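## retry 2 of 3
previous attempt timed out at serialization; input unchanged, resubmitting
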Amino acid sequence: MTRKTLLTLTLLVSSLSSWAAPEPIIDSLRHVYGRESVRTSQNTGTPYADTLDTGNPDVKLVLYNNGTWKYARDPKALADEKVFTEYWDTETTNPYRSENVQPGDLHLWIVDTLDSYCCPRYGRISSKFGYRHGRAHQGIDLPYPVGTPVFAAFDGKVRYSQHVGGYGNLVIIRHANGLETYYGHLSRSLVEPGQWVHAGDTIALGGNTGRSTGPHLHFETRYRGYAFDPSWLIDFETGTLRHRMLHIRSWYFNPSQKYVQDVDDEDAIWEGDEKARIEKEEREKQLAAERERAAQAAMRWHTIKKGDTLSGLAVKYHTSVSTLCRLNGIKPTTTLQIGRKLRVR
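## retry succeeded, writing output
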């Protein structure tokens, strides 16, 4: 990659970061762009060669040894974000336990233009989300030979990395959208709490620790402590992230709710979201028009006659000189012309 190309890319991201589209356009693009699927990162396990400034202090250009590149958020810019300070505990698996409030329906950005994604493992799921032998299995199991590198699914910050109960060696990564991903039964963790990782970074080695019947990776997705089936998020057969933005419904957090949705259902959800967005926009326009009509109806005017003064009109209409000036864009010293209409309410 030439210096000229890098400079062009730097200027491009700088200009994009300073451009702000009108809210209705952003909202529409959010649904269209959010619907896109994402293939796994091509930088899996590839070390960084360098990082470059882009003109935006919160964004870096990351260069890899294999000749590829990507834009990424600067971890320093995210360090003080509420998501990385609130309920941050490196000694417990679920710091949200005391909150005990199940999330409702929400839209959650998983990967935007500055984030990356790496499938934890392609292929068949050996044990699905849901009840198993009378106990809630809050993630999925993926066959994973001992010693095989385990990759971070998304960019984020390591919150937990130690041995715990049935999980064995466990790594938990919190992401900027509030999502947490769990990686269990590891033979060895290669990261520490507080460490920032990018999608595709090697964070551990596959293993058979904890309550395990054979080498595999236990993978969970949780939001504010509540687990949901990772298959709502990822198609593990193809390794594809289903959508850039996930519509999470409250019943996803029920331990018995597995991914069963087909394409038609998926389309219906997004069409419903778009319809609701348009209806909301129309309602807001109608309300704005009604407020404007009400404001017009409430207006009151006075035609200036000989001898009228601002102070006299203020007393007559139970208002103040400053209010009359504000309503009419005049000053207290403005000469009142006979016949001119003056707004008094």
